[in-house]
Design a protein that fits this description.
Number of helices: 5
CATH architecture of the largest domain: Orthogonal Bundle
Strand order of the largest sheet: 1-2
Structural class: mainly alpha
Number of strands: 4
Helix content: 55-70%
CATH class of the largest domain: Mainly Alpha
Bound molecules: zinc ion
CATH topology of the largest domain: Arc Repressor Mutant, subunit A
Radius of gyration: 15 Å
CATH superfamily of the largest domain: Winged helix-like DNA-binding domain superfamily/Winged helix DNA-binding domain
């Protein structure tokens, strides 16, 4: 498996974990004036597995299709779609701050 070096932190990662010349962590850390990105960053750092992070970043920032993401991560397209909808349902709870139980009141 080929390895790539992140231009920011200098660590080596699998090619599938790189976004352009950055590792995922450095890519997410890159400063941008977008409150949505800040919320997403919090969510990424606290709630998700590494594969789940990659799906979100590829989909929203690189605008890749599920098919392209599936090929990159060596997963089926169906699996990526399932993981994506599961991530989104959790992201909504996280970014809205709403808990299911609150809806009863
Ligand atoms: Zn890095």
């Amino acid at each position: 498996m080929s390895k790539c070096q992140c231009v920011i932190c200098g660590k080596w990662f699998d090619e599938s974990e790189m976004i352009d010349e950055y590792c995922l962590d450095c890519y997410v850390e890159a400063p941008k004036d977008d409150p949505q990105k800040q919320k997403l960053k919090d969510f990424l750092q606290t709630e998700l597995t590494r594969a789940e992070k990659l799906i979100l970043v590829f989909y929203y920032y690189d605008e890749m299709t599920f098919r392209e993401i599936a090929a990159t991560l060596n997963l089926s397209e169906k699996r990526v779609a399932q993981m994506h909808s599961y991530i989104i349902s959790r992201a909504k709870v996280f970014t809205d701050g709403t808990e299911g139980k609150d809806k009863f009141y």
